Amino acid sequence: MQRIVIAAPLVLLGLVFTSLALNYAEPQSLRPLAESYVKLVPQELGAPNVITGILLTFRAFDTLGEVAVLFMVAASVGLVLGPAGSRSGVPPAEGREKPRPASDIVRSATQILVPLISIFAAYIIMNGHISAGGGFQGGAVIASGVLLLLLAHPEQRLDLQFLSITESLAGVLFVLVGVAGLFVAGGFLDNRVLPLGQFGAFFSAGAIPLLSVLLGIKVGCELSVILDRFRP
Amino acid sequence: MSISGVVFATGLILILIGMWGALTHRNILRIIVALSLIGTGSHIVIVAIGYVRAGTAPIIDRALTMSDAPARAVDPIPSALVVTAIVIGLAVTAVMLAYAIRLYDAKKTLSIDAFTESKW
């Protein structure tokens, strides 16, 4: 009986998916909305990377919402798991066994890799408006470096206070840049509050590099806080 | 079948595998893995429907001039949506894992059969 209950929806959904896949036709040209984005982002926003232009100007309000979701997740993981050290069955006073130190290989590799990961993250964040990259991706790379540090030094604590202050500052600045757009340029989170500069140059595309940096810092801090909450 | 059609079908198959896993497995960690598979599958589907025949990445440089871009670039909107969806997917997985840890603390088991209080 239970098998039928499980199999029936799967088979029905499989039929829907089969018909979707069989009737799928590769589009020959862009849809009108996409075409206008591909035209408008380089011409009016001065950003060579269309996707970053969409994320940080046309749909920047959406991006702000996504960052708020990340913030809420960091807070709710903290709420569910409680402060670090409060979780295991044995109270800390009875001398829980200390976390096993990481091996030499992990520690040496961390010393070499963490600076490289940080440089790579900075490159991805700062390059977002010119080539492939952006704040979300760079922030995730920062968090992967933090994860490596946590694996190599399990006994060390992250400075959560510093992370939350940095993260809040980045969020406030992000909103302030957006509000500046209301007064100086066309609307909330318009990137033309700063000069557009030369197309394809490092300092170009108005506020997009600035927003990208703020987004990268915010995502990196939030994901690091989430990672830290999972320690026993 | 076109290349984006293959990617599209792969995403749909991943979603089905994820649903099967979430419905049949009893271990909470396996259910979380299955739910992540559903998420990954839908990301692949969304990216696949943005592909345009013989298209390239929508980044203007020497290989793709501004005037040629509308004819040769792929749809940028699905890619932009998936970038945020991946990060949010990671966050949702983190919340699920946090609940799994709490549930394990409560019953010292990860089997979903042990948690019958909220079953109707």
Give me the number of helical elements of chain A. 8
Helix percent of chain B reads: 55-70%
Q: What's the oligomerization state?
A: heterodimer
In the CATH hierarchy, what is the architecture of chain B at level 2? Orthogonal Bundle
Radius of gyration of chain B in whole Å, from Cα? Answer: 20 Å
Integer count of domains of chain B: 1
Give the integer mean of the pLDDT values of chain A: 82
What's the CATH first level of chain B? Answer: Mainly Alpha
Number of domains in the coordinates of chain A?
A: 1
Gap from first CA to last CA of chain A: 41 Å
Largest sheet of chain B: none
* Coarse morphology of chain A: globular
- Could you list the spans of chain A in which at least 5 consecutive residues all have pLDDT below 50? none
Helix-strand category of chain B: mainly alpha
Strand content of chain B: under 5%
Mean pLDDT of chain B: 86
How would you briefly describe this protein structure?
The complex is a heterodimer of chains A (232) and B (120). With 232 residues, chain A is an all-alpha fold.
Description:
The complex is a heterodimer of chains A (232) and B (120). Chain A has helices at 2-22, 32-45, 50-58, 60-81, 104-126, 135-152, 160-184, 208-229. Chain A is an all-alpha fold. Chain A has one domain (48-82, 100-229). In chain A, α2 (32-45) packs across α3, α3 (50-58) packs across α4 and α6 (135-152) runs parallel beside α8. By secondary structure, chain B is an all-alpha fold. Chain B has one domain (3-55, 68-118): Orthogonal Bundle (Helix Hairpins), CATH 1.10.287.3510. Chain B is 67% helix and 0% strand. Chain B has 4 helices and no strands. In chain B, α2 packs antiparallel against α4 (76-107). The N and C termini of chain B lie far apart (46 Å). The model of chain B has no long low-confidence stretch (mean pLDDT 86).
